[in-house]
Fold this sequence. Notes:
The structure is a homodimer.
Chain A: H1 4-11, H2 15-23, H3 30-43, H4 49-55, E1 61-67, H5 73-86, E2 90-96, H6 101-110, E3 118-121, H7 128-134, E4 140-143, E5 152-157, H8 159-172, E6 178-182, H9 188-203, E7 209-212, H10 217-229, E8 236-239, H11 242-254, E9 264-269, H12 272-277, E10 283-286, H13 289-304, E11 312-315, E12 318-320
Parallel strand pairs in A: 1-2, 1-3, 3-4, 4-5, 5-11, 6-7, 6-8, 8-9, 9-10
Antiparallel strand pairs in A: 10-12
The first copy, chain A, binds a DNA duplex through residues 3-5, 13-17, 19-20, 23, 25-29, 32, 47-48, 50-57.
Protein name (chains A, B): Periplasmic binding protein/LacI transcriptional regulator
GO molecular function (chains A, B): DNA-binding transcription factor activity; transcription cis-regulatory region binding
Domain HTH lacI-type (chains A, B): 2-56
Amino acid sequence: MFKLKDVANLTNVSISTVSKVLNGKGRVSEKKRREILKVARQLGYTPNYHARTMARRSRILTIGLIVPDITNPFFAKLTKGVEKTCGEDALIILMDSFRNLEREEKLIKNARFFGIDGIIIGNSRVNDELVLEVSKYIPVVVFDKDYECENVVSIVLDNYHGAYSATKHLIENGCTHVVHLGGTHELFVSLQRANGYEAAMRESGFQPRIFATGYDENKGYENMKKILKQGETVDGIFCMNDLVAMGAMKAVKEFGLNIPKDIAIVGFDDDENLCEIISPSLSSVHQPVEEMGQISAKLLFELIKKDLKIKRYVFSPHLVIRQSSLKGRESQ
Amino acid sequence: MFKLKDVANLTNVSISTVSKVLNGKGRVSEKKRREILKVARQLGYTPNYHARTMARRSRILTIGLIVPDITNPFFAKLTKGVEKTCGEDALIILMDSFRNLEREEKLIKNARFFGIDGIIIGNSRVNDELVLEVSKYIPVVVFDKDYECENVVSIVLDNYHGAYSATKHLIENGCTHVVHLGGTHELFVSLQRANGYEAAMRESGFQPRIFATGYDENKGYENMKKILKQGETVDGIFCMNDLVAMGAMKAVKEFGLNIPKDIAIVGFDDDENLCEIISPSLSSVHQPVEEMGQISAKLLFELIKKDLKIKRYVFSPHLVIRQSSLKGRESQ
DNA sequence: CTGAAAGCGCTAACAC
DNA sequence: GTGTTAGCGCTTTCAG
Lengths: 332, 332
């Protein structure tokens, strides 16, 4: 790696002159400037980033983004959102924990040593103490949780409301026996969604029936099969996520029932790739994930600049209605 | 932000003593060490990353990863692979160009100014000159292309072979009228895939029929519909990617034909999420994307350390056979 | 116009 | 044990 000094020596000027030319500051004779530029290019000179940010007052913002799995569409979209608001003004250091909690904690703990100005923690199951500790050193953005602490801002999704409106939609479309294929309650979100479902059911005078199902397609399939086999009366299903809904659809079809005529279905997350490719297309509660990423970054910047206005940002999901829940129509 | 000097002043020792304590080097009396540690913690002192890497001989590796769209499963997997081999030893700066060529070029051009030690360019349509120029400054990894240049390594996928074996598989399963729904030939990969298809067909004495289709589900659907409407004889389809295959399947089903009995189908990319959720499940040519990411990073490290052994790494895709191509069986 | 010199915050020899 | 000092490579006054 060449340095200013090398260029200076080769052109018989001082390093400060070289610096000026390379930064387009101060005035230098056209002749020298030419020469310097030429030599710098020949050498392939690149200013040392660290030296530069040391010497300058202003530094380029660097934010750490920690996700459990970049391969999961949710986190990919989140990342995209973050990236969008960073634009040209900030670098983002992506750290994937591979769903390994130990690795995740290490990443979070070490982040501040890498010249990171703030950190966004994608996993909503973070250890509270860890967040509190890290926030002593750098600003933090978290999801689905709240902290009293000064240096933390929260992005939350109104899962309750999303579940409520999905259930309501099924009822309004004529379902009288809506069941909920829920998550296991180690996750806060699945509890919230179950609550939303329950509220909508009770409000209409129906008895809620919640089945602890899980989070993937296979779980949805197996559980739905079991439910149908048991002879439960079902004409509507609200699923905790789209994958579970996919599985449930498969089971329903296997029983020779028509979606949505016999059983209407709504998912959660609105992974367009899935929802639109399946037949009939799946209605789902849409999370504005990318936008959540954008806001995360925006609030983080404010926090870094000590110019925070908002400490908690709530997103309301909305229902995207497709074929799977329109009971009026029969799918071919 | 506090600095060593602040801690030193507060504890009445020199900054070098503080440095020693904080880095666990040299010997310092237990009493002072305690005091120093305590004060440092109270202050929330974090060493300045840039100053540190300047003063130290060894610096932490930082690599830039440029992708057109992190939301695309291909690039998400690639990123995961890269991250995996980075492990704890390197930082990765993720840059999404949002499929904006101008932005992408800017990102690539500027990368070297951000203390990046090497760069991985995910987009296989990069401008050659740009790659050559950037490689003068930092090591580069590219995909699907080759450069004479010293400082560039290539990761390529044997698309030809993948297409060949997919087509061969259809033929061996009894198809005599296999068509190819290909891409538009602005993409090199689609040309390679078409060539592989053609070779397999000719080898078996069949006339290849290639339809320039496109890259998404809708294109696959529309084009396949047209082909069937025209009354073409078709009993096998090799699609340029999984999305096109999805669309084609939809069209085939609409015509009341059975997959795979009447028409067998194979896709490309093997996006498991899609291939396994559809019914019948879709056979597809698998690209070891994550592994490609891992190798990219590995080779980049070697390049950075001037210890390069390989200049070109070829991955061979393999066919994953699911239900959509097993002509023997009829799907229900 | 041009260069000497101070300093960004930290580390690592090397004295004391 | 502890402090002094010389850089790391660059930017930026401030003289000349």
